[in-house]
Structure to design on (598 residues):
């Protein structure tokens, strides 16, 4: 399955067995992710951009709006035959899809949305693009089809109060895709084979309320072979079948603290899958998993002692494993494949100091879309022909921002009061010259995600105004292993908050932070940490800014959406049970401690 619109890497690893769930997440892996449905963004016209650029910026080179301006072109994606590139660009202030013939440069706008941004798109075949869009922010995404000339526009899922999921775009099939729809039950998605010309549906399996499947997975031939269901609110059951005319059978059951994440099928043995697994170990490693025996097969293929592995890529054409990636201070790769290693070596030589992602390719795997970024730049898009070793610039993402004007994002670490190593990032303003400076402490949302290295417009805005920004991956942040994640259970406002507080003390002790000028700001869980910071350590912060944060753990637990109800037992284990742990949850809820805020 190929990525929708603008993935982080061109790789076929879309299927994830996630045994922890993100409750809040304002943290982003890269400054732009238009591939997923989301809230609308107003796209400025050239005239509006000129007006913004001419506005008064006071004593600063950049206005606030400069850091958050929507790119004029984004989400570039190659057609399967490599002849065209599709991308997002504004029309009437909304994201629309444009198609450009690479040889001639001739460009056609193929959609005309004026009310709602298009959420994401992908190539169904060399002549047709499918895209998703909701209505008025209701998150009921429909799937639409349109020809590359803008003709034959069609609503392929014309169902009210129903949303679509993409399961497999069936790259070798020009007429069908596999999707999930919740049209029979709003809490359950059933898999269907969809004809992209007629809209005809063939149901491939039936989901059940008593055993809700949360994820479906196909093999390399587009056959539905794996299903993953939840059981009892805390367990995940991996199911498998050899052929589509068989019933799924249970293979392995894990509780939510363990992960056996099937990524894609082996190329030679049909019942083996490549998987990331932390079964009976702390870190996620790359293994072969046997769907017949329910056990790992052979030796560990790659592992890191310090962090989880985070992504795996392969060549669909050549049927070989290519790379595995992992995040420490930045993203790194281990190469299994000499061709892919040479491709990245060439690109890193041509684009030094940049994070490089292959976000799209043609079926021949000769042409690629390359996306770059760094901690000081939103980067650029390039068209790369691997056979000719030819790299052509397409566009800069934010040409109005000069990289040399932005501040570097430094990797830092410190030790918590109970001995955990906490990793994070520190961005300091220009001209601080080693003197203590005002600091904005910025804990990430989630909480079960992590901050990463890259361009963050909020951080750079604050740095441009003379503030240092401190981001820490407190306990519970993902990627550092099972034990580090589990150390956050029922520690909201306690040890998780201590990790933040200890980081502030470290900044002061190192002479980095002015102890009289420290603020805290965060969104979602970061907003909760902000409120907890001023409620539980009121003398530490000069001011606090809470953005959509939890203030009351009781109301938080009672307002979980209906489709999360099967996961309540897991949430009770991770956050607390409002029925049996009232005293502890009250103690951790900032709303009951507002009298302590100064």
């Amino acid at each position: 399955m190929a990525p929708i619109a603008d993935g982080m890497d061109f790789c076929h690893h879309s299927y994830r067995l996630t045994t922890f769930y993100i409750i809040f997440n304002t943290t982003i892996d890269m400054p732009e992710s238009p591939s997923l449905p989301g809230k609308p963004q107003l796209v400025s016209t050239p005239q509006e951009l000129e007006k913004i650029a001419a506005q008064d910026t006071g004593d600063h080179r950049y206005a606030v709006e400069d850091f958050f301006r929507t790119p004029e072109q984004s989400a570039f994606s190659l057609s399967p035959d490599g002849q065209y590139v599709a991308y997002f660009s504004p029309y009437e202030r909304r994201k629309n899809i444009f198609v450009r013939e690479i040889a001639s440069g001739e460009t056609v706008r193929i959609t005309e949305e004026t009310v709602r941004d298009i959420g994401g798109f992908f190539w169904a075949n060399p002549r047709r693009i499918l895209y998703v869009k909701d209505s008025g922010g209701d998150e009921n995404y429909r799937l639409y089809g349109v020809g590359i000339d803008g003709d034959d526009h069609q609503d392929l899922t014309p169902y009210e109060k129903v949303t679509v999921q993409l399961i497999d775009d069936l790259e070798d099939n020009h007429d069908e895709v596999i999707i999930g729809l919740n049209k029979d039950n709003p809490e359950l998605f059933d898999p269907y084979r969809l004809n992209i010309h007629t809209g005809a549906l063939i149901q491939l399996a039936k989901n059940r309320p008593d055993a809700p499947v949360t994820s479906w997975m196909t093999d390399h031939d587009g056959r539905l072979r794996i299903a993953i269901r939840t059981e009892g609110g805390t367990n995940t059951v991996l199911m498998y079948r050899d052929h589509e005319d068989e019933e799924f059978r249970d293979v392995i059951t894990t509780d939510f603290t363990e992960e056996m994440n099937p990524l894609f099928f082996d190329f030679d043995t049909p019942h083996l899958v490549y998987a990331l697994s932390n079964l009976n170990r702390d870190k996620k490693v790359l293994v072969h998993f046997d769907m017949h025996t329910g056990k790992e097969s052979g030796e560990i293929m790659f592992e890191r002692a310090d962090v989880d592995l985070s992504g795996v890529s392969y060549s669909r054409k050549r049927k070989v494993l290519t790379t595995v990636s992992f995040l420490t201070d930045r993203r790194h790769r281990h190469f299994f494949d000499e061709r892919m290693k040479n491709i990245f070596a060439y690109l890193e030589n041509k684009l030094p100091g940049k994070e490089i992602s292959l976000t799209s390719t043609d079926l021949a795997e000769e042409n690629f879309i390359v996306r770059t970024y760094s901690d000081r730049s939103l980067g650029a898009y390039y068209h790369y022909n691997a056979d000719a070793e030819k790299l052509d610039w397409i566009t800069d993402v934010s040409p109005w921002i000069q990289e040399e004007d932005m501040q570097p994002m430094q990797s830092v670490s410190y030790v918590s009061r109970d001995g955990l190593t906490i990793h994070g990032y520190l961005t300091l303003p220009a001209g601080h010259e080693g003197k203590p400076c005002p600091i904005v402490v910025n804990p990430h949302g989630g909480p079960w995600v992590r901050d990463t290295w890259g361009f963050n417009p909020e951080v750079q805005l604050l740095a441009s105004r003379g503030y240092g920004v401190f981001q820490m991956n407190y306990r519970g942040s993902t990627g550092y292993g099972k034990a580090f994640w589990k150390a956050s259970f029922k520690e909201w406002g306690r040890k998780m908050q201590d990790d933040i507080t200890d980081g502030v003390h470290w900044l002061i002790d190192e002479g980095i932070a002015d102890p009289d000028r420290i603020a805290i700001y965060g969104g979602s869980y970061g907003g909760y940490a902000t409120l907890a910071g001023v409620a539980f350590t009121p003398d530490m912060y000069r001011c606090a800014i809470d953005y959509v944060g939890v203030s009351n753990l009781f109301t938080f637990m009672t307002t979980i959406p209906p489709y999360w109800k099967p996961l309540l037992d897991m949430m009770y284990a991770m956050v607390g049970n409002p029925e049996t742990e009232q005293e502890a949850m009250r103690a951790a809820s900032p709303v009951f401690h507002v009298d302590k805020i100064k």
